[in-house]
Design brief:
By secondary structure, the protein is of the alpha/beta class. It has a single domain, classed as Alpha/Beta hydrolase fold, catalytic domain (Rossmann fold, 3-Layer(aba) Sandwich), CATH 3.40.50. The chain is built from 9 helices and 10 strands. The strands form 2 sheets. Strands 1-2-4-3-5-6-9-10 form an 8-stranded mixed β-sheet, with helices on both faces. It has a two-stranded antiparallel ribbon with strand order 7-8. Strand 1 and strand 2 form a beta hairpin. The longest helix has 17 residues.
């Protein structure tokens, strides 16, 4: 275990660097006008861009990975726009969205997404698509608002037992093991968060809660259709031997594949050509997976294993 943990300290630029830029720290807004709508959800406005027929049901909600925002889904939305309603948005402090109230917990971001969809009149039910840490966010959304969610696509998703760099701890850790505090309830009344504050970083606690929740319920998504996409083209970090890289990659790949077990009606697809950002490297695969989930929902059928 110690050896594996040490090895992991070399890795995970595929998730870790993205994880901590996911909204804990506000970014410089992108240039140009917002391609979608800025919707007021209380103290701040969030940007959302929907494409495709407004009558399309279920609507597909696209949750970006850390450091990314709505434009990461542009190619996927373009491929589906003639027949599927998709909505991509920017979490508070990212993309064209304004900074939101702190602390910027995952629970807060899920609460704000729910508020945004209601304010923007994007009615459920939904298929949730999450990339990287967005995979954890859509799982939390399904836990909080289960009756609104019909299916899922997880794009090289983060795992609750993964090793990440903790800004709060100042080192690489198996993040969930650092959880010590109660997570504040989400709301819209807190002061606006414009910079990172380690006292408001509850990622470790939230990872641990997800871990414990799954221990209690091995298939929290029930039999709702779920497709998990894994990246098969992970770059070997400089200075890492082939032997060490093999061990690192195998654990990461095992964790991604493990997430197909969240539902009793799931499919795992390894894309040998794609890096962590499958939605950019192979947008057609992501679009096809979304349509497979929609078809399974419509036909009340099972996905091919």
């Amino acid at each position: 275990m110690r050896k594996t943990l040490t090895l992991f300290l070399i890795l995970i630029p595929i998730i870790a660097s993205a994880l901590f830029a996911r909204g804990l720290i506000a970014q410089t807004p992108p240039s140009g006008p917002a391609p979608g709508l800025l919707v007021n959800i209380g103290k701040h406005k969030l940007h959302i861009r929907c494409a495709g027929p407004a009558s399309g049901k279920p609507a597909v909600i696209l949750e970006a990975g850390g450091g990314n925002f709505s434009t990461t889904w542009s190619a996927v939305q373009g491929l589906l726009s003639s027949r599927v309603r998709t909505c991509a948005y920017d979490r508070a402090g990212l993309g064209w969205s304004e900074p939101g109230p702190g602390p910027r917990t995952m629970s807060q971001e899920v609460f704000e997404l729910h508020s945004l969809l209601k304010a923007a009149k994007v009615d459920g039910p939904y298929v949730l698509v999450g990339h990287s840490i967005g995979g954890l966010l859509v799982r939390l959304y399904a836990e909080r608002y289960s009756n609104q969610v019909k299916g899922f696509v997880l794009v090289d998703p983060a795992h609750e037992s993964g090793v990440f760099y903790s800004l709060r701890a100042g080192k690489w850790v198996r993040l969930r093991e650092q959880g010590r505090r109660a997570v504040p309830k989400p709301g819209l009344d807190g002061p606006i968060a414009t910079k990172y504050n380690p006292d408001d970083d509850y990622l470790a606690e939230e990872f641990q809660l997800i871990y414990l929740s799954r221990l209690a319920n091995r298939k929290p998504l029930g039999d709702r259709p779920l497709i998990v996409l894994g990246a098969g083209n992970r770059s070997q970090p400089p200075g890492t031997s082939a032997e060490l890289w093999k061990e690192l990659k195998e654990e990461r790949d095992t964790q991604v594949r493990d997430l197909a077990g969240l539902s009793g009606n799931s499919q795992f697809v390894l894309d040998p050509s794609s890096s962590h950002n499958i939605q950019n490297d192979n947008s057609q695969l992501v679009a096809d997976s979304i349509e497979q989930v929609l078809k399974a929902i419509s036909n009340r059928s099972r996905l091919a294993p």
